[in-house]
Queue: 2 jobs
Job 1
Amino acid sequence: MSQTYVTGFPRIGEKRELKFALEEYWAGKTDFEALKAVAKTLRNRHWNYQKERHIDFISCNDFSLYDIMLDTTVMLGAIPPRFENIDDKTDRYFAMARGDDDHAAMEMTKWFNTNYHYIVPELHANMNFSHVNISKIAEEFIEAKAQGVHPKINLVGPLTFIFLSNAVDGSDLFNLFDAVVTAYAKVLYAISSLGENIVVQFDEPLFAKTLEPKFLSLLKIAYERLGVVSPNLKIAVVTYFDRANEAVEILGNCPIWGIGLDFVYGEENLDALLHVNGKMLIAGVIDGRNVWKNNVSKTYNLLEKISEKIDAQQIIISTSCSLLHVPFSTQFEEKLAPEVKSRLSFALEKLVELEQINTLWEKQEKPEASACTQKAPSVKSSAIAYTRSSYTTRFALQQKALNLPLFPTTTIGSFPQTKETRAVRNAFKKGEITREAYEASLKESIKKCVELQEALGLDVLVHGEFERNDMVEYFGELLEGFAFSENGWVQSYGSRCVKPPLLYGSVSRKQPLSVDWSVYAQSLTDKPMKGMLTGPVTILNWSFVRNDIPKSEVAFEVARAIAEEVDELQRHDIKIIQVDEAAFKEGYPLREEKIKAYEKWAVESFKASIGIAWDQTQIHTHMCYSNFNDIIDTIERMDADVITIETSRSGNKLLKVFQKANYKAQIGPGVYDIHSPRVPSVEEMSEQIKAFLHVLPKEQLWINPDCGLKTRGWSETKAALANMIKAVHLAR
Ligand code: MET
Ligand SMILES: [Zn+2]
C-alpha cells in the first residue's frame, strides 16, 4: 500500500478569509477571538479537504497568522530584545511582523526563489533559547486530532533557520548552532508527549542550494541528535526547490525516519537514492510551484525510475513542496476560457492528482503516454538579430541626439497612484465608464505629470504609468497567450496576496502596448520622453509559465513582442526606452551549476527585446536591488546604455563593483529611497552624489530616485524630487 503526503497547505483561505480577518483585526474592527475563530475554521476546512482525498500525511503547524519563520522565532523563544517590552503576546507578534508606533518591523525577505516573504529572525551571540514554547503546535495538533486527523507536525529545520537569520551584533551565527539544536531537541521532547507515533517534518530547503561543506557536517550533527530525542517520533527531513544530493548522503546515515526530495525541480535527486538507506522516501512528484495539470504518464515514469533504486514499500508519494505557492482551487474560476481552465491545477486539484497517481501506482496500472499536445512554433534566439553597434559608438550618437546635461536627471517611471487613479481604472474595467472617458482621464493625469516634471526641471521625463495596475499584468492583458484568473491568489507576505498572470499559450503582440501614452506624453514637451516597458525575464519570473516548452523559448516569444513595441516607439520618435528587469535576480537558480543556463536565456532574451533599437535610441533598464557582486559581468552583457538601480541606502559601497569591473555604460544609482515617505534633504543627496563620484566617472552618472514612485503621495514626491534637482544643480 503506497501512501500520500502533502508537504504543506495554503492557509490564506479559498476566498482569502484569513487576509480579511487579519485586516479587520489590525484595523481594530474585530477582536482577537474573532480572528482566532476564522483561523480555526480555515484549518478545519483545509484538513477536511485533505482527508476527503485520503491523504495519509496531513500537516499541522503549516498554518500561521503571519509567517512560519516568525512562528519558529517565537517557538524557540528568540524574541529580539527590542520587542521584549511588549507584554501582550499577540501585540508583540504583530509588532514583530509589521512594526507599531514604537517599533520598526523586523526585516522581511523572499523565501528562496519564491515570491513568499518570511520575517528574518534577529539573533545575537548571547541568545540562550531557554524559553521554547510549543503551545501553537499543541493547539493545532489537538484540534486536528479532534477532527480525526493524526497530523504530522511541520517545523522549519534548524540549519535553514540559522542560515536565514540575521546577526544583529555582527556575530557568527554558527556559534549559536549548539544552542539552537538544543532548543529544537527540547521542542521535540515536548512534542513527544502529545501522542504516539508522531511524524515531525523538518523543512530544510537550505540544502537545495550550493553550500560549503561546513553546512553538511552541521546537518549531520543536528540530525544525529534530533533523530534520537524520542522513540515516539518519526523524523522526516524534507528539501525542495532543487536537488539535495549532498544532504541525502548525510541524512541516509542519520537516525531519522524519512527524507523528502523534490523530483520536479531536482530530478538529479534520482542519483542520490542509493544513499537513502532503507528510510522512507517522501517523493515530491506533484509540482507544488506551478499551476498546470500533472502529466500522469510522466509522473508514473518518474515513480518507476525511483523504484528501480528503492523498494516500492519505502516510497511515499508527495507534492514537490508546500502548496503555499499555488492558488487554492480552480473551481472558483468562472470566466477563464475552457481551453485554459482545463489545463490548470491549483492546490485542491493537486490533492486529487496525488490520489489519482497513488491509485495507479498501487495497481501498477501504467497510464498511456498523453498524446503529444500541439506545440507552439518556437522562436529561436537566432531569429532575432542583435544589430546594435558598440557602446562607444552608440554613446556618441545618443549624446548628439539627446544633448543631455552632465548628471542627467530622471525617474524610474511611475508617479503616485492615488485612490482616484485606481478608482477610474476599476470603473473602466467594470464597464461603468466609457473608453473615451477613461482615456481622457488618463491623458489628464499624464498632462499634469509632465507639467510637474517640467516645472521641477527634470531632464528625461516619463508619462507616469497611470494606465498600469501592475508592471506585468498590464502587458500580459494586452498580449496574446496570457490569461488572468479571478481568484488565483497566492500569499506573498502576511495578509498580502498576489495573482500572477497565467502564461499559457503562444505569446504575441496584436496591438501596441504603450505607444499611445508615450506619444501623447511626448507631444506635451520638448524634453525627451522615456518609453516604459517591462522586460521578458521579469514578465516570466512574475507569471505562472507554461511548462510544455522550455522557458527559454517562452522568453523569446515575449522578447519578440517587446521588441516590436520598442521598434514602434522609436519609429514614433521616442528616443529613450526603458525596459525594466525588476525581477532579473529573483530568477537565479539555487544551484551554482544551473546559473549559466539561466543567465544565458535571460541575457539573450533581454537582448532580443532591445536588439532592434537603433544606435541612437538610448536603452535604459532598471533593477530593484543593489547587490551586483556576482552578476556584474552578466549585467554588462545585457548591453543597456543606462541602468538604474537601488543603492540609495549604501552610499557608494555597492557601486564599487561597477568600478572594479570597469563598467563602461551609464548608471543611475538611486539617490534616495522611495520605500519611505521621508523627504531627504538637499545636503543628504549632495553627499550621496559626492559618494557616487568617488567611484564613478562623472560622464557615467545619472541622478534618479531608486525605484518607481507609485506607492508614494504627491506632496512628498514633489518635495523629494525638488531637493534632488537642487542637489544636482549644486553638483554641476
Ligand atoms: C519594481 S520596479 C518598477 C519599475 C516601474 N517602471 C515603476 O516605476 O514603477
Ligand atoms: Zn524598482
Note: The chain has a mean pLDDT of 95.
Job 2
Amino acid sequence: MAKILDGLKVSKEIKSEIKAEVEKIIKSKKRAPHLVAILVGNNGASKTYVNSKVKDCQEVGFTSSLLKFPATVSEAELLEKINELNHSKAVDGFIVQLPLPKQIDQEKIIMAIDPRKDVDGFHPENFGKMALEMDTFLPATPFGILTLLERYNIETKGKHCVIIGRSRIVGKPMSILMGRKDFPGNSTVTLTHSYTPHIEKFTQSADIVITALGDPHFLKSEMIKKGAIIVDVGITRVDDDSKKGYHLTGDVDFESCAEKAAWITPVPGGVGPMTRAMLLKNTLLAYKTSVYND
Ligand SMILES: Nc1nc2c(c(=O)[nH]1)N[C@@H](CN(C=O)c1ccc(C(=O)N[C@@H](CCC(=O)O)C(=O)O)cc1)CN2
C-alpha cells in the first residue's frame, strides 16, 4: 500500500517557516510583504483559489489585496492596472488568476508583468531563467511538487519521470525542472500529451508519474509499475448531491493506484496546498529582492 505525500501537512510546515521570517521582518520595524491577486470574471474554482491565497497571506503575516474585474473587462483596462502595480512601491508581487476570459490575450497580460514582481514565474524572462538554472521565481505548482518530493526525501536522480500534460502552468515547466541538475531533478523526462499514442507504454515503465490533465480517474493501476511515485495535479469538480454540490477528483484512480504505488499524492490535500505555499515563498523572495527595500 502506498504512503501518502501529504501536501497539506508540508504546506503547513512551510507556512510556519514563512510566518517566523515575517515576524522577524516586522520586529525590525520594516513593512510586511504585500501580494496582489487579480481575479477576472466569475469562475467558481478561480474564486476559491484567490480567496485562499488572500487567507494564506493573512495567516503568515503578509498584507494582500484582491482586485476583482468583471468578465467583460477590456485587455486595455487590465494592462493599465498591471502597469500601475509594476510601478507601485507598496507591491512586492502580483498574480493574474488564470484562466482569463476569451477576449483577453493571456500571453499579452503575462508579458506586461514586471518579471521582478512575477511571483507566478510565468513571464518568458523567468521561464527562460528557470530553464537555464538561474535564480528566479519558479511556477508555484511545479515548485510545490519539487518541494514535496524533497521534504519526503524521494530520490529523483537517474529516475524515469513521465509527465502527462504540457500546460504552461504545470507540464512544460515540470518537464524542465525534473531534468535540471539541482536536487530534486536529474531525472530522465518524458513529456506526454494529447497526441502521444498509447500513453500507458510510457507510464508503465516510469519511476515517477506526474499527471496534469483534468481527466478524472485517467491513470489506472494497470498503467503504472509497482513501487512507482504518483503525483496527481488534476483537480476536477464533479457535481453531486452534497451540500457543496460537488466533490473534487484527481486524474489518478486513487484506490487502485495506491495498492501498487510506493508514494502517492491525494486530491484534495496533495499538490493544491503546496501550490499555495510556494506562492507565499515566491512573494517573500520578491520582497527580499525588491529594489524598494534597501
Ligand atoms: N495565476 C495562476 N493561475 C492559476 C494557477 C497558478 O499557479 N497561478 N494554478 C491553478 C490553480 N491554483 C492556483 O491558482 C490552485 C489550485 C488548487 C489549489 C488548492 O488549494 N486545491 C485544494 C482544493 C481546493 C478546493 O476546494 O477547490 C487541494 O487540492 O487540496 C490552490 C490553487 C490554475 N490557475
Note: Residues 29-114 form a domain with the Rossmann fold fold (CATH 3.40.50.10860).
